Structures are given as structure tokens and as C-alpha cells.
Amino acid sequence: MEQHIELSPGPKPARNKASSSAPIKSSLGVQPRQDEDRQPGRAQGSAIQRSPDWNNGSLQPAGLFNHEATRGSFSLGSILNAPDSNPPETRSNESPIPADDPVQLGFINLSIATSLFDNFMVNLNPYISQLDPQLHTFNRVRQQSAFLLTATLAAAAKAFNPALHKKLRDHAEDILNCNFRKGTKSVETAQAVMILTYWKESEDTRAWMLLGYVIRMGMELGWHRLASYSLHRSDSTTDLQSRHARNIERTWFVLFVYDRSISLQTGKPWMIERSEFIESIEAWCRDAMATPGDRLLGALVTLRLLSSEVFRLLGPRSSRVRARQLHSLESLLAIIKGRIEEWESRWLRIADKDTCHPFLIQFYGTHLRLQLFSLPLQDILAQSNQNMSYHMEALWVSYSSALEMLHLICRHSSWLYFAQDSVHVMTAYSAAFLIKASIYTPSSIKLCNIVANEASTALVSDIHSAISGAALVFSQQAAPSGSSCALQSRFLNNLLARISKEPSKEATNRETNPPESWSQPGTDRHEVVAENGITTPSGRGFSQMEVGLTLDFAEDEAWAGIMAEAGFNAQDGVFFA
To answer: Where is the region Disordered (predicted)?
Structure first.
């Protein structure tokens, strides 16, 4: 039976059948200003209720402890219900503006703050689907959370007013540190922390850890037990109450997508499991209050749901299926590929055409195809006795997907300036994949000599053209030094410089020390020379290095050096695991 989220201004009575694993219903009212540092450790915005019920037979801690201890205030004082545990003092006649408001502290002028906030909502928020323009107005955000306000202003300042970025960013970091010490938990705190990770500094490696912190915060507030979404809300709820409810639901959906995405990018485990609530995303997107950003969010949630079980089946590299099972794996991926294409076609039809959403839907879908098909390709290339011509689909889909990602960058260049860091990580991955995979491919393709020769030449030409085109587009963004676009342009140009230098070195080596395979008598001109490259009909060895793809790129240390020279920190990244 489908459940829905009920909203009411006060706490709910205990339910007859409470369970620590059952979905819960959130009780949301029109909240007063939620000043995080004035009420440390207290769940705000989402008053998700759980009560012990001695009649239900629950013997778990969640069913026996004081309910305050299991809904966001897990401390010895709340467990023991000690009256002298120094509860936070409440102040009378509080100012409607928090004490750490960046405007009141003089970090930014009010008119500039208003302008930056508007720029964030119009230009940056569409990429992350984080805030509701109807709910998150400047005045409301300013009254509710200095942290969220400062985080949005810092992100906007990085793009629109770099002179203000550092002091706003530092102030947001100070509030983050203060909130972490106090154990502050609220939906605004969660949103602010996430915004700090979307457009972070290039040397900042905390995204995965901060995401885990926010997910744990959401679990403390009970978001992992949200009930399956229903279009039928209580008639007594106001529009504002419904928007507050959707604000929490949206945040948990965003966390699910972020969790799965960063898991794919870093190879680390995810934290949020799929649930009935997560699976009800399409009904949630059909709500009358759904925003264009909610539709993009719906597309991304369904994409992660589509792919999550496939990656679980494939497992870590050490336990992946081997050569004798590759055929069945490729059949599974062919089915998933068709479903991704259906997904892309469907969500493109309902996406807002005047925003970045069509670009992001195509880009994320293509990236997923690349990652999925690179898994069997990696196992195939690792085995010297594999005939690559039997696995051309994995090779072709991987290559074409990586190339298409770079082509999408060129076709949608107007959306690159404000793109969040995940787009840049995926772009770097596609370029790195094309070069690193190509190192191993030419000597593995056992085709007709002429075809192999021509295919290799065309392949390298396409790769060079795609990478150079993307590098040019990023360089034309006129982005400040140190920005993501500037770093991306430098990274791609670094790759081009490397593959341009190596052929000349290799040509010199060949002139002084020609490979034995060039002059060996009796060599069959229609055989593949697996070690040195491909033999052409003229008998001349066609080295994979000659076309600009050298084994220097095969070492992870080489990639780390290229990334470091470009200004990227690859500590948390996996480009070809």
C-alpha cells in the first residue's frame, strides 16, 4: 500500500506499529528561522518523529531508548534523559538575522549579496537541482541559515565576483567548522555543505568525506526512512508546508545521486541504498510543485537506479567474470545500453530546452555507457590470448562514448563556464580513457593488415581532433586562472603535448635502431606483429607509438604527473581502474 508524507505543524502521536526499519512519515510545519548555531545538535526543518512502543516487542536500541536519542540527538544525556545535562538556552527577542550573517559582519554589501544570490539561483542552481526558487528566496534563506546563504554567495562569487570569493569561502568554512563541533543538523546545513563541494578549490580533496558527513546527518534526521512518495498529500497542508516537505525529499534524492556518482568516479563504496522512497522518484516529479530542476533530478535518480545493480553484479575487478563469461556479460551490457538510450530519449523530451539540462542528460548518459563498457574491455585487453575482433562492441561503444563526451563539450560550450566539478572530472576521464585504452588496442586487433593500419590512423586522428577541440572550447571560456575551465584546458593541452612529443622521439630511435621485424626475411606480411605493432602489406612495421600513443601513458605515475602539472588533484579520482 502506497504511503505518503503527512505534514503538520506539531509533533505526531506514537504509532501503534513502530519499527526501526519501517518507512516513516515526516511532520513538517512552517518553521521559524532555523539558526543553526543557536540550537546545536537539534534536528531542524524535518521533525521526523519516532517513539518507542512497548507493545510492539522491539528490543533494539532504537525501540527502547528515549526517542530524542534516536532522532538526531544521540548523546549520553539524551539516552539517560538526565535533566541536568545542560540543554541549550533559548534566547528571547532574537534578531531575525543570524549573528554570523555575512552582510551584518561586513563581508559583503547587501545589494551585491542580493545580486550574487540571484545569479546563483538563475545560473548555478540549474546544474545541481538543489534549491526551490519559490522557497529559497534571498530573505528567507538569510533568516533561516547564514551557512546556506554564505555557501551560495561564495559559489556565485567564484564565477561572478572573484574578488569576494575568498573571504566568503573562508567564512563558510568557519561556519562549517563551528557546526561540526556543535553537531548541528538541519536540511540547510546539509545543502550548504554540498554546495561547498560542487565548485571547490582545485586542491580540495574532501568531497567524498564531506558527502559521507552529510549523508550521516540525513540519517540522523531520519531521511533514509522517508515513506514512498504519494501524489495525495493531506488537504490541511499549506503550499509552504508542502514545499518544506519537498525540500527535505529533494535533498535526499540529491544525496542519493551524489553518493552513486562519486562512487563511480572514485571506485569507493556508496552509502545510500535504494528504497521505496527513492524508487518513487517519477511520481515525485509529477507533483504540481515540481520545478524544472526536479525533472533533471528525476532523470539522474532513474539513471543511477538503472545502473546500480549492474555495477553490483560486476563487482570489484578482482572478482569480475573472466574470459569464458565475457559473452554473457556483453549481452547484459547490450540490454543496459538499450535502456540507457530509452532513458535519454524519454527525459530529453521533458527537459527544459532553455537550460543546461539537455546537455547534462546526454553527457551523464554517455559517461555511464563509457564506464559500463570499459569494464569488459579492461578484462579483454588484460589477456594476451584474446582476439579483439570477437569483442568489437565493447571496444566500439567505449571509444564512441568517450569521443561523444568530448563532442558534447564542443556542441554545448555555452554551458561549460558554470558546470560543477563532476562534469570536469568526467571530461578528464573520457580523454584519459581514449589515450590509455588506445595504447593496448592496436596490437590486440587481429584484422586485415590494411584495415588495421587505416583504422589505427583514423582512430588516432579522431582522438586528437576531439581532445584538441575540447581543449580549445575550454580555453575560450575566458575563465580566471585556477578555475575548473582553465585547469581542464591545461590538462587536455598537456595530453596533446605529450602525444605530440613522443612520435618524434620514437622516429629518431627507429632510424638508429630499426626493429628486427622490419627486415626479418620470410615475415608473412599478413600477420600481426603483436609486440611492435602491425605489419603493413609493404612489410614495414606500423608501430602503435608511431601514431602518437606511447606506453609512457600506461603507468599510473605518468597520469599523476600529467594531472599535477595541470593543477588537478587526482587523489580521489579513478580514470582507468
So the answer is: 1-99, 502-524
Task: Report pLDDT digits (tens) over 147-185.
Answer: 999 999 999 999 999 999 999 999 999 999 999 999 999
Give dist(CA 469, CA 488) in Å, integer. Answer: 12
Among residues 221, 250, 279, the one where a domain terminates is: 279
For residues 564, 569, 572 and 577, what is the CA-based torsion angle, rounded to 10 degrees? -30
CA distance 388 to 384: 10
As given in the structure block, the three cell numbers for residue 532 are 611492435
Last residue of a domain, one of 279, 298, 330: 279
Task: For residue 106, give every residue at least 6 positions away whose Cβ sits within 8 Å of its Cβ, in sequence order, or none.
Answer: none
Say which residues have a Cβ less than 8 Å from residue 34's Cβ, sequence separation at least 6: 44, 45, 144, 145, 186, 188
| Residues 495, 492: Cα–Cα separation, whole Å | 5
Q: Do residues 17 and 271 lie in contact, with contact meaning Cβ atoms separated by under 8 Å? A: no
Q: 305-359, pLDDT tens digit by residue? A: 998 777 766 655 444 444 456 666 777 888 889 999 999 999 999 999 999 999 9
Residues of the domain holding 507 = 449-577
CA distance 389 to 407: 26
In a domain, 369, yes or no: no
Strands (E) in 413-563, as ranges, are: 533-535, 541-543
Domain membership of residue 348 (yes or no) is no
Number of domains present in the structure of the chain: 2
262 close to 255: Cβ distance less than 8 angstroms? no
Q: Determine, yes or no, domain membership for 12.
A: yes
Burial 273-300 (b: 16+ CB within 10 A, else e): eebebbebbeebbebeebbbbbbbbbbb
- Packing angle, helices 239-266 and 421-440, rounded to 10: 30
Closest CA relative to residue 303, chosen from 358, 259, 258, 364? 364
433 within domain boundaries: no
Distance of alpha carbon 29 from alpha carbon 9, whole angstroms: 4
Rg, Å, the chain Cα set: 27
First to last CA, the chain: 43
Cα–Cα dist 491/257, whole Å: 27
